[in-house]
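From the thread on structure requests for the teaching lab: each student submitted one protein with a one-line request. Submission from student K.M.:

"Model VOC family protein from Streptomyces cadmiisoli, tokens only."
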Amino acid sequence: MASRLNPYLSFDGDARQALEFYQEVFGGTLTLNTYGDFGQPGSSDSGKIMHGMLETPGGFTLMGADNPPGTEHIPGSNFSVCLNGDDAAELRGHWEKLSAGASVSVPLEKQMWGDEFGMCTDRFGVPWMVNISPRQS
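Reply posted by the TA:
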């Protein structure tokens, strides 16, 4: 899979409704995973969206999620730029450069869903997410 660059939107508990709306607008295939799907089944946040992805026939990719429990939702700054793919060397290289002099909120490391993932805000104030998936054989 080639690496992709796309927006990643954050929501205050209404990610499902928003992503379903964007699917109505743009068409395509919507995949939604909840916090309950990834190890928090009994919590009050188990039905909230941990990760959603809309892939459209026109080639758009839009990702989004509800803010993680305990984090503040700030309208107007509820986005990140997401780099994702399975070329680990390429994406780690991008991460090293983006995170140099940045504020790293999540170090690039293996996560509970099996991918390597990291988050930082670069020295220009732009929030980034990097997700490295295992190569598909």
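TA comment: The domain at 4-132 is CATH 3.10.180.10 (2,3-Dihydroxybiphenyl 1,2-Dioxygenase; domain 1). Helices lie at 15-26, 88-99.
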